[in-house]
Design a protein that fits this description.
Blueprint (H helix, E strand, L loop, with lengths): L11 E3 L2 E3 L6 E5 L6 E6 L3 H17 L6 H17 L1 H12 L6 H5 L1 H16 L3 E9 L2 E11 L2 E5 L5 H15 L2 E5 L6 H13 L7 E3 L9 H5 L5 E5 L2 H11 L5 E5 L4 E5 L5 H4 L17 E7 L3 H13 L19 H16 L3 E4 L14 E4 L6 H4 L6 E7 L2 H9 L7 E4 L3 H10 L6 E2 L18 E2 L4 H6 L2 E8 L5
Parallel strand pairs: 7-8, 7-10, 8-9, 10-11, 12-13, 12-17, 13-16, 15-16, 17-18
Antiparallel strand pairs: 1-2, 3-4, 5-6, 6-20, 11-19, 14-15
Helix pairs in contact: 2-5, 2-6, 2-7, 5-6
This protein binds nicotinamide-adenine-dinucleotide.
């Protein structure tokens, strides 16, 4: 879609109205593939955020939203249908502001996430909010118990820029389905994927004022209000582990429920009986979307006995990997989202070189406009080194040799992260035995896919707290109440 036809919404959504920032300020939205300014967006202030929190609080306390799942399902379905109607617009926005490759928009960025909203509409209606526990005897009398799940209250939703529309949907969907009211604070790099959702909500749904608020801001700290304000009951955050720690800290004085989806450094383990010719080249998929995916496998663990064979296969795969203009269908890697991110990735690459790892392919930036980084393959990487331990969030694969299956598991688990991973073997039982020992929230065996709207997704260790998606994902937004009642049959 041509730039002039993007027509994204540039206002925030507060208390049912699309509004400019209260001080009239805006900030630029820049295309990372060209470095051109796409347009601007309301630069939400702290006062705007406070107004959004107030609106969400009032909508939760004073409307029937929390108690009317059928109405919630209707509104979420309208949101789903609105996104379907504006799908091409949303696709153009995500490609332009996030540098997402158009070929990837079907699965991760646009079509699949929109379908997820339908799941949340159905879940709002079908979830059993009230069930009965078995009767109990206490001091000679029988007692019944109702187990009720009720919305937590006002949910602060904070999202990053890497898969912006998906991540906004992955939070707005279950938050609204549960009966919470919400304030969404998107990343400043990708504001339109959120503000446009706001316009769809206003123009195409019956969502009552205050139920969904969206405040874009160039100031990260505007989001901090969501973790400090006593009127907010829950913070649902996706982003870096460093910010996750800060949010937990800020939420502690009011003891908010905190739900965190954080970083990763996932290991792709090839056991020595794996079909290397078939599997190793897929290691180049580390570069997909510029490596800007929390669950991408960024460490490849190869058995020492077949190590050089693997590195040679990877070299060929990296050299023939297509990257560049995200609007070209052959490319699966576009730019990093910002100059800052490009700089960060390049600094990690320099650190890797200094710490003695071998650059097999890439290692710099191409001479072209846009915040691109070359697909970069490092071999002979010390598992304790910075590039093997820290999340780079760039198109960089580190290859590490191991001695035997136990050693592979030990290296995979030698990380502060525990988000995802993969194991490959000709022997399924052997692969599964390794998979069961890797301490991560998801894992792929022999290339099979775990990602789906009904699969709980989240991390062990410092990759997060809680699970997104699926029924467990809905339950993050629910409180639990037990009501003692007369026993059944009485
Ligand atoms: P980030 O932590 O810098 O920012 C994420 C969001 O938090 C942005 O909206 C930002 O404005 C906001 N923010 C920053 N400081 C804040 C504060 N003090 N209080 C409240 N909000 C604040 O992360 P990023 O660079 O935008 O995203 C990349 C990170 O996200 C990576 O680490 C990646 O692994 C992670 N991520 C995790 C998942 C997952 O599901 N586990 C998914 C996608 C991305």
């Amino acid at each position: 879609m041509a730039l002039e036809k993007l027509a994204p919404e540039t206002r925030n959504l507060i208390d049912g109205k699309l509004v400019p920032a209260s001080n009239g300020n805006t900030f630029d939205n820049v295309n990372p593939a060209t470095e051109e300014v796409l347009g601007s967006v309301a630069d939400g202030t702290k006062d705007d955020m406070l107004a959004a929190v107030e609106a969400a609080r009032r909508a939760f306390d004073e409307s029937d939203w929390a108690n009317d799942p059928a109405f919630r399902a209707k509104c979420i379905r309208q949101l789903y249908e609105g996104m379907l109607a504006e799908k091409e617009q949303l696709r153009a926005i995500v490609v332009a502001e996030a540098g997402a490759c158009v070929t990837l928009t079907g699965f991760m960025h646009v079509d699949n996430p929109i379908e997820m909203m339908k799941y949340w509409a159905d879940k709002a209606a079908s979830y059993e909010y009230e069930t009965r526990l078995s009767d109990i005897e206490f001091t000679g009398a029988m007692h019944g118990r109702l187990l009720r799940r009720e919305p937590v209250g006002v949910a602060g939703l904070i999202t990053p820029w890497n898969v912006p529309l998906y991540l906004n949907i992955a939070k707005v969907g279950p938050a609204l389905a549960s009966g919470c009211t919400a304030v969404l604070k998107p990343a400043p790099d990708t504001p339109w994927s959120a503000t446009h959702l706001g316009r769809i909500a206003v123009e195409r749904t019956d969502l009552p004022p205050g139920v969904l608020n969206i405040v874009a801001s160039s100031d990260h700290l505007t989001g901090e209000i969501l973790s400090t304000d006593p009127r907010v009951d829950l913070v649902s955050f996706t982003g870096s582990t460093a910010t996750g720690r800060r949010i937990m800290e800020c939420a502690s004085p009011t003891l908010k429920k905190v739900f965190l989806e954080l970083g990763g450094k996932s290991a792709n383990i090839l056991l020595d009986d794996a079909d290397f010719a078939k599997i190793v080249p897929s290691g180049a998929m580390t570069c997909v979307h510029g490596g800007q995916g929390c669950a991408i496998t960024t460490r490849m663990l190869l058995p020492r006995s077949r190590y050089e064979e693997g590195v040679v296969l990877l070299k060929t795969a990296f050299e023939s990997w297509n990257y560049g203009d995200p609007t070209e269908p052959q490319n699966l890697q576009g730019p990093q989202v910002s100059r800052l991110q490009q700089q960060r990735v390049l600094e990690y690459i320099e650190k890797g070189k200094k710490e003695g790892a071998r650059v097999v392919v890439g290692g710099g930036k191409p001479a072209r406009p846009g915040w691109f980084v070359e697909p970069t393959l490092f071999a002979d990487v010390d598992p304790k080194s910075t590039i093997a331990q820290e999340e780079i969030f760039g198109p960089v694969l580190v290859v590490i040799p191991y001695e035997d299956d136990d050693d592979a598991v030990r290296i995979a688990n030698d990380s502060i992260y525990g988000l995802s991973g993969a194991v490959h073997s000709a022997d399924l039982d052997r692969a599964l035995a390794v998979a069961r020992r890797v301490r991560t929230g998801t894992l792929s065996v022999n290339g099979h896919m775990w990602f789906h709207v009904d699969s709980p997704f989240g991390g062990y260790k410092q990759s997060g707290v809680g699970r997104e998606n699926g029924e467990m994902g809905l339950e993050e937004y629910l409180e639990t109440k037990v009501i003692a009642v007369p026993p059944q049959g009485n």
